[in-house]
């Protein structure tokens, strides 16, 4: 990784640690297995434990920006869950690989996971959304010579993705609000 990429990873990690002050934050370097594709060099998944900002776990990429930035601007991703699990670290690495591999994710995009979010869950897709659980203070991450936007990867059902295709992203977000979904509940019922 070049110096700019290393600086960006450090800046993202610093930003996440400052935002989640009072939480434990562990930087996990993802080591892909032979069945996984290449992930961004030196990708880290920042694993944030429960604390003052919430009782759930957050998983934040640090290293996507360096692999795909354009004119100093790029993306990182956050996922929230009820527990700490290697599964979520692996999912964040999968998202980084997908994003880097020519599928350039962005706000309102989605991707299939290929299996349930967790065993028994009906959520088998991820929706890229604003980080509603954390707000713009996490979303906007200044970096040397640019910035990263940290977007939420929300687990959703295939029916919810189909609804979004027909009705639009805003309609789906409104449906989530109306249904008062708990976004960290892997066993929530589909809002559709």
Task: Please provide a brief summary of the model.
By secondary structure, the protein is of the alpha+beta class.
Explain how this protein is built.
The protein has 192 residues and is of the alpha+beta class. It is 34% helix and 27% strand. The protein contains six helices and eight strands, in the order H-E-E-E-H-E-H-E-E-H-E-E-H-H. Strand 7 (140-143) and strand 8 form a beta hairpin.
**Category by helix and strand content:** alpha+beta
Instruction: Provide mean pLDDT, rounded.
Output: 89
- SSE string, helix = H, strand = E? HEEEHEHEEHEEHH
Oligomer: single chain
So what's the overall shape?
globular
Write the layout of secondary structure elements.
Elements: H1 3-19, E1 25-29, E2 44-48, E3 57-62, H2 64-68, E4 73-81, H3 86-103, E5 110-112, E6 123-129, H4 136-139, E7 140-143, E8 146-157, H5 158-167, H6 169-179
Parallel strand pairs: 4-8
Antiparallel strand pairs: 1-2, 2-3, 3-4, 5-6, 6-8, 7-8
Helix pairs in contact: 5-6
What brief labels describe this structure?
192 residues; alpha+beta; eight-stranded mixed beta sheet
């Amino acid at each position: 990784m070049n110096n700019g990429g290393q600086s960006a990873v450090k800046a993202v990690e610093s930003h996440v640690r400052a935002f989640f002050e009072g939480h434990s934050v562990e930087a996990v370097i993802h080591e892909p297995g032979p069945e996984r594709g290449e992930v961004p060099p030196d990708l880290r998944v920042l694993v944030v434990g429960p604390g003052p900002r919430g009782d759930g776990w957050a998983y934040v990429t640090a290293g996507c920006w360096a692999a795909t930035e354009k004119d100093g601007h790029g993306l990182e991703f956050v996922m929230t869950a009820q527990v700490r699990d290697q599964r979520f670290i692996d999912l964040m690495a999968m998202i980084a690989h997908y994003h880097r591999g020519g599928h350039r994710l962005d706000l309102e995009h989605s991707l299939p996971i290929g299996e349930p979010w967790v065993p028994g869950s009906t959520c088998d897709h991820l929706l890229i959304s604003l980080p509603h659980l954390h707000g713009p203070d996490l979303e906007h991450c200044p970096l040397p010579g640019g910035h990263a936007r940290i977007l939420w990867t929300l687990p959703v059902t295939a029916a919810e993705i189909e609804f979004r295709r027909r009705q639009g992203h805003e309609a789906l977000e409104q449906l989530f609000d109306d249904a008062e979904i708990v976004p960290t509940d892997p066993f929530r019922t589909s809002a559709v």
